[in-house]
Amino acid sequence: MKSKDKKELHQKSIKELENLIAEAKNALVGLKLDKTQNKLKNTSLLSVKRREVAQMLTVKRLKELVEIQVKKKE
């Protein structure tokens, strides 16, 4: 994931991130299926997609923690 894409993740809402995470996880499942069927030529795509999912989950968690902090201060 390019740094431009990472910056765009921080601008998305939690709901949008959840949708992106679900789509990426579905793509990851498809890649795993292709790998088991020997259809996947570039197996490094698996680690790239896992890393993208992890980055999205991290941004989502940061946003959730910020919301909790804001609610505590109120």
Features:
74 residues; Helix Hairpins
Q: Strand-residue fraction? A: under 5%
Largest sheet composition: none
- Summarize model confidence as the mean pLDDT: 94
Strands, count: 0
Based on CA atoms alone, the radius of gyration comes out at 15 Å
Low-confidence stretches: none
Fraction of helical residues: over 70%
Q: SSE order, as H and E?
A: HHH
- The end-to-end span amounts to 36 Å
Kindly name the structural category.
Answer: mainly alpha
Return the CATH topology.
Helix Hairpins
The CATH class turns out to be Mainly Alpha
Seen as an oligomer or otherwise, the chain set is: single chain
What number of structural domains do the residues give? Answer: 1
CATH architecture assignment: Orthogonal Bundle
Number of helices: 3
**Which term fits the overall shape?**
elongated
List the helices and strands and how they pair.
Elements lengths: L2 H9 L2 H23 L7 H30 L1
Tell me what you see in this structure:
With 74 residues, the chain is mostly helical. It has three helices and no strands. α2 packs antiparallel against α3. 4% of the residues are buried.
Structure summarized in a few sentences:
The relative contact order is 0.15. The protein starts with a helix and ends with a helix. It has helices spanning 3-11, 14-36, 44-73.
